[in-house]
Design a protein that fits this description.
Elements: E1 21-23, H1 38-48, E2 54-56, H2 57-63, H3 73-78, H4 87-98, H5 104-116, H6 125-128, E3 132-133, E4 136-137, E5 141-145, E6 148-151, H7 185-194, E7 200-203, H8 213-224, E8 233-238, H9 240-243, H10 254-266, E9 270-276, H11 286-298, E10 301-308, H12 316-328, E11 332-338, H13 345-348, H14 352-364, E12 374-379, E13 383-393, E14 396-406, E15 416-419
Helix pairs in contact: 1-4, 4-5, 7-8, 8-10, 12-14
Bound molecules: iron/sulfur cluster.
Iron/sulfur cluster is lined by residues 159, 162-163, 166, 168, 205-207, 239, 276.
């Protein structure tokens, strides 16, 4: 019997691979780029000058199907696409890049101006949800829902690759005022000790699992050893199972990471990995499945979520397959989100009524075990709003909605109605039904 109560990483027989970032600077050097046309390469340069672009050797070599370019969903998930910028923004940047006399300062300035028109901080994330400690506003935390505190460890504010649809895209651009960060584990501990209503801490980023295991342990220990019995659940939001599954197996501190997770579970707490899987292909590699196996063996619950994204997964078959595969691998389908009102929403967004149809059709195809999933849901300023369906009430076509989570706990679970709007992509495109001047949660 091994002294650990989970398999050591060498038994998984995974070779150690060196992480290589692929960005705007070096993407033209990878052999796969020969599969792209000159126009596609230029579009990557133009869009990648405005929105963040980073992928890596695992994704390029094992996930993207280069025989299926430009339609491959994982390619679209990682490589900037022309349609992600509206034509006037694309043309402005393309002209600057074409023109040999343009200075890099001019490109930076134009990129900044375009970004500011893309709603870089949707739903008041930065200002509205920041909590206070001893009269001081805390930078690396958000406390929006009573039971849950979001913690943004400063070392975890990047990712192993950037999703083209990411709603936190602006924090990867180094625009300081748009970036949350905090490294003091003791501030987290102090805050939590004063807030006994909090039961859950969600580590988020970026991707907290970009951190060294020892750094993450410092934060986890602040909770476990910090006399905080009211903290029952620790969640870690991550896309590492897709973007760098070696993190859990052959990276040099993979065993330390497992030990850190084990310690959380031994403390009697629930440890949930909030995994982002946008497409079933992401969980089909041998290494991703081994990583899931290892986490499950340690006792980590894996809950899966993704936005519904045009060009990537706007198909009920894809979602049904995703949820079935998740269940088969021992993961729990959790959320289908609506793409947020930021960045390239015009490219990835799916109208709300279609989102509901896709959700419903996919839901019909799976057994009860996969129906743990909730959605389609908008993580909006007042709370997480689920689209329950389309109905006819008093001869009016309406959306029925409800809060799954809300700033005010009293709003949760209350159905409400919005006028049917065909092209609505987000809450702010909706108007209350039946002539009401405002929704019940909006103050006069
Ligand atoms: S992994 Fe998450 S935070 Fe990172 S780029 Fe993708 S969506 Fe954004």
């Amino acid at each position: 019997m091994h002294h650990l109560d989970y398999l050591p990483n060498y038994l998984y027989n995974i070779p150690s691979i060196k992480y290589q970032a692929i960005t705007l600077r070096n993407f033209k050097t990878i052999p796969q780029v020969q599969k792209l046309t000159g126009e596609q390469i230029f579009a990557i340069e133009v869009v990648g000058s405005v929105l963040p672009f980073k992928t890596n050797n695992y994704i390029v070599e094992h996930l993207i199907d280069w025989e299926n370019i430009p339609d491959d969903p994982i390619y679209i998930l990682n490589f900037p696409q022309k349609g992600m910028l509206k034509p006037h923004h694309f043309n402005r940047m393309a002209d600057l890049i074409h023109n040999r006399t343009t200075t890099s300062e001019e490109i930076r300035k134009a990129a900044h101006e375009i970004r500011m028109e893309l709603n870089p901080n949707p739903d008041g994330q930065i200002e509205r949800n920041r909590p206070f400690l001893n009269g001081k506003k805390l930078k690396g935390m958000q406390h929006k829902y009573r039971e849950t505190v979001l913690f943004f460890p400063s070392q975890g504010q990047t990712c192993h690759a950037y999703c083209t649809f990411c709603f936190r895209w602006s924090q990867f651009l180094g625009i300081d005022e748009l970036r949350f960060a905090m490294h003091e584990a003791d501030v987290l501990q102090q805050y939590l000790s004063k807030h006994t209503e909090v039961t859950d801490v969600l580590f988020t980023g970026g991707d907290p699992l970009i951190m060294k295991a020892n750094t993450l342990t410092t934060y986890l220990d602040a909770i476990i050893d910090g006399d905080l019995p009211h903290i029952r659940n620790i969640r870690i939001g991550t896309k590492a199972l897709t973007y760098w599954p070696y993190r859990f197996l052959s990276d040099e501190d993979a065993d330390t990471l497992m030990a850190a997770f084990r310690k959380v579970i031994r403390s009697g707490r629930h440890l949930a990995l909030m995994a982002h899987f946008n497409h079933p292909r992401e969980m089909q590699t041998d290494i991703a499945q081994k990583a899931i196996h290892r986490l499950r063996q340690v006792g980590v619950e894996i809950r899966c979520q993704s936005p519904l994204l045009a060009h990537i997964n706007d198909d009920p078959e894809v979602w049904a397959q995703l949820w079935k595969d998740e269940v088969r691998l021992g993961c729990i389908p959790y959320y289908m989100f609506i793409a947020r009102d930021t960045g390239a929403q015009h490219y990835f967004g799916v109208p709300l009524h279609l989102a509901w149809q896709i959700f419903r059709q996919a839901y019909q195809k799976v057994s009860g075990l996969a129906r743990t999933v909730r959605g389609p849901a908008m993580s909006s300023d007042p709370g997480k709003i689920q689209i329950l369906g389309l109905s006819n009430v008093r001869n009016q076509k309406v959306f029925t909605l409800r809060f799954l989570q809300a700033r005010n706990p009293d709003w949760v679970g209350r159905p409400f109605f919005a006028r049917f709007t065909k092209n609505a992509l987000w809450l702010n495109d909706l108007k209350p039904a039946f002539g009401n001047p405002r929704f019940f949660f909006q103050s006069p």
